[in-house]
Amino acid sequence: MQVEAYVGEEMVLNMGPQHPSTHGVLRLELETDGEIVKKVVPHIGYLHRCFEKHAENVDYPGVVPYTDRMDYVASMNNSFGYALAVERLMRIEVNERVKTLRVIMAELNRIASHLLAVATYGMDIGTFTPFLHCFIEREKVLDLFEWTCGARLLYNYNWVGGVSHDIPEGFVDKARQFLREFEPVLKELNELLSYNKIFIKRTAAVGILSVDVALSYNVTGPNLRGSGVKWDLRKDEPYSGYEKYDFEVAVGDGRFGPIGSCWDRYYVRVWEMAESIKILHQALDRLPEGDVQEKVPKKVKPQKGETYGRSEAPRGELGYYIVSDGTGNPYRIKVKSPCFTVLSALPAMAKGALIADIIAILGSIDIVLGEIDR
Amino acid sequence: MQQAPEILQVLQGKFGNKILSSDMTALDPTITVAADSIAEISLFLKNNDELAFDTLMCLSGVDYKGSKGETDRIEVVYHLFSMRHRHQIVLKVQLPREEPAIPSVEKIWDIANWHEREAYDMFGVEFQGHSDLRRILCPDDWVGYPLRKDYVQPETYRGMPVAPGKQFVEMAQEGLPVGTDPFREE
Amino acid sequence: MDAIFSWLSSGIPAYARLPELLQHLIPMVLACLICLVAALLFVLMANWGERKIAAHMQDRLGPMRVGGWHGWAQPLADGVKLLLKEDIIPAEADRLLFRVAPVLVFVGGFAAFAVIPFTSSFIAADLNIGILYAVAITALGVVGIIMAGWSSNNKYALYGGMRAAAQIVSYEIPAVLAILTVIIHVGSLSMQEIVQAQRGGVWNWFLFRNPFTFLAFFVYFLASLAEVNRTPFDIPEAESELVAGYHTEYSGMRFAFFYLAEYANMLLVSCIATTLFLGGWTGLLSKPLLPGVILFMTKALFLVFVQMWLRWTLPRLRVDQLLHMCWKVLLPIAFVLVMGSGILALK
User: FRET pair for A130, CA 20 to 30 Å: which of A344, B92, B106, C315?
Assistant: First the structure.
């Protein structure tokens, strides 16, 4: 960039890879005129760990720990999507207990992931207290996971054809106890953060994402639902028994400003946590008996073919394009990560924003760099 | 909502010989099209009212080299979805491995900008008409296309060893100190 | 200061033989030292208090180990740690300004304690322009912040400095106007006179005397929150946006100066609000039961607690919303209050 090009008060500010609010190693190059941001260019690749190349060198079950490490905040959902895609390729139908367990774990992880998203968003806007309140609840979920499979964050849980561990004795009661304790916390969060006048002022008129822009950028998940589109893969293309659960799809309604604002996206997440509580109660009620590893094949060797399997991760539609050449190792796995697409839409959302708004928008789209860079 | 054979019929009707082949019995019905026509086919698929493919779900590159029963080629695979009509289709384009080039669909679906940059970064596919074709995941001055099957990892990058694990093993075998404090006095 | 002078000259027989200048200089220095030490002690206590208050609001415990009982010595430990840190000055920074900035901010915060009437007899300097001096000296802090932002040679610091300039200078005006509503009734700028005008029980306090001064208290409180860069007005040091704003590049004792100055400012602003609106060292009853200093400190510490409470509850305003609130909300209200107070004083 030539120095002569910047006349007046334009400045290039780097919200560099190390920054308290970029939710990971992300570099945002801002061209600013005073406080107004004229251009924002995201630079990614700082967390690229070549997952897709590694996947070609290990066998299908060995890919599952790698999938955990992509969106490390919602690992259950990553391996869920992968297991679904491979099972589709192999024409395996798992039993009801596995389906229900997968749903339980996915929804618990959805709650944990949204708690983190909401809490760190509050921190970006300036309140530190909801962060700690949310993390207390998140600890309880992580304790449940540790009890089941030994790990707090990266589980290696959803195997091809089943799950790695059955739930221990007393898990159902402990889970119900957590849900009972969690509902009042959600109400408290609404009072403390969601309807706070300053929070609304900071977020309700900022980062408007219209539906055409969202579809053109393939924005999915809570970010798309915040713009008013009622599309949830759990309801519209159900998998793993989701068609049997009764829950609503959380959609933004432009309550405090134009539809598709940061507040709408944030509130969709809070609402989704309430819906996850509903699903969890139903799943815990109907958990059938069975052997969780009965359909796990001795050697995972899908026939030659390819498929694109997608599932509703907390951050959007997670897609796995798996090409199999008939051997035990995948030939090619391509992951379409929801955060990748929504981050590419950041310049479109940030038209006319101030620096503080960039932080608000970045927090509302809830990215995890592990998934973007893989 | 249209089924894949109907979509294929519409495409064949409009583009005739540009539609090279199709596979309607696979798990995801696929249509292989000619490389130079991908942009116009994509535009048609997006703007046509009955098809209305408004979302590009995924754009992947696949390198078929040395795979049993497959010719050596690089494929670019487009997974399209229509939010309006709730149907999906897969388009495939086959490119030669030396100097693969294909028109960009960036103007049709904005997300293609980043997906194509990634395909370029990993496979070396040149997308003609792309506004900003540079590497996205690897550093800008990286050499080589990592996801190709014949990719050889460079030994060093800007003077730093790329796979220090191997070098540490060699150093240990030669008796040099490995994994110790670099500032300590000998 | 006069009290110290008379105590020294009556207590030490040889005192009258010192040169005239020294006779007056020593009590001055002693009075200022007392103020400074008291303010510093408060700052240490406030640091601990803030961490404990924040912790309990966030459902955790805060410092628990350092010094034994609930970690009361934590600020001391932090102070020692900061003293021992390496003094880093960025290579391209403007060295003189970088060194001077923390001093200015510190002076701007602590020097105004000289005119705070802690009791009816103790005030380090009973100037007849007391409140004007306090407002003027705290303006020195802005210069220090801008200097810090500029001299750090860091874009984030520059943003912090620019925002601080806009914010603090803008909020001076409603603050001073709110002070004016009180001065109109007192007729003097001297701090002791202001407190003397509120003798006679709680209903004489300016807070309750008439609706205009009642509202002026809130206007002053909000404006002073912005003066001291506390949330919701803490954009100059907005942690999540600007890393650390104007003190990004500062480390060690220099950073400690900024930190101490922030707490001192909090206390200063609370003391001024107490003096002007809450009756200073007077009590609830006409004949106070407790000593004046206890009453004064209780009120001031309560206001400090409210400031901490607000910080850990509320999010942060954006820069343009903050300035909108100053120029389009607080300033018109303050004008109306001054007019109303003036009309009432005419009667």
Answer: A344
